[in-house]
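Quick one: structure for this chain?
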Amino acid sequence: MRERTLDVAAPEKLGEGAASVAEGENVHVEVRLEGLHDGILVSAEVDTLARAECVRCLDPVEIDVEVEFQELFAYSPDEAFDFVVRDDQLDLEPVVRDAVVLSLPFQPVCRPDCPGLDPLTGERLPDGFEQPIDEAPDPRWAALQSLQLDTDSDTNEKR
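Got it. Here's what it folds into:
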């Protein structure tokens, strides 16, 4: 068993959605390698910083990414294993990339109660703002507004 700490720069942008880790951003990896009969078990904790825009108010957001993974690197190529030890080397880049990208939020927000933008003006709404309820009737139901049901006659007929 061996433990290592690695600080590397992200070789490329990680993630293509609303949040991503920029190329060159520091990626801190604490890795534990354990020799097994079938291969090498890699357990790791990855810490890095992702940047995004809040999907509600469009303010910039920095997200601390902390993710753990465990993967087995096989000694011999086999269909049962996704990763293989090659020339006594382990390529952790694809495993770290997948773990980081899968942990990024799909719709990042600056804070859970972010009010967002005003749909009419496009300005940021103040904190604590509650959208007024629109009482305008839906035009798709306009034909049914003239329909009047007599509920008393229905109950009298059943008796």
